[in-house]
Amino acid sequence: MSVPEKKIKAIAWDLDGTLVYFNIDFIQARKNVIEIFTEHGVDPSDLNIQKPILENVKIVKEKFKEMKISKKKVKKILKKVEKSIIKVESQAAENANIVDGIREILEFCHQKQLKQAIYTLNTNESAKKTLKKIKILNYFDFIVGRDDVVNSKPHSDHLNYICKKLNLSNQELLIIGDNSRDIEGANNISAPSIGILTFKHSENDLKGANFIIEQKKITQDLRKAIKTFL
Description:
This protein is an alpha/beta fold. Helix content is 44%, strand content 13%.
């Protein structure tokens, strides 16, 4: 894909898998959430333990509508689910490790006077805790977690929030992430993007990115890719 004509002024970084490794037992976390929903009448066969928690939450919201459960009760159930997720995220933050080579790239971006933001499905507080733990919080101007927006990535609201906060056009914001949601989010607002290829995802998952960089080659290749947007 060609590089946009407009130069970038900021970068929105995904967190998990891009900047850090989270040692999260995703299956157990999803089991915990599914148990909460089944306790409130949702058929477990309607849910999928292989899907991200937020996708199952969307399914359950529709089921609750069909079951005519009051908004007040739904809110109470979702609050219980959110507490369960935050507990897992908090534990993961304590054990997070920085991706090799990322600190050098963040410093390079800082020297180029690029604004840097976090674009994550974690809560703002969990992300902040993680960045503090691995000592890179100082590189970021702000964090946008799922609790900061009504509709999180890949919905356009998440990145539009960042553009508005930094007073940038969509083309002036570069999105870097390892997940299809990151690239889809960038494509939804016609912003440039770089996909980080890890063992968790395929090149097809990152389809639409301007560049796809192998995580093991971040130190040399990611810097080069970012330079093409400057």
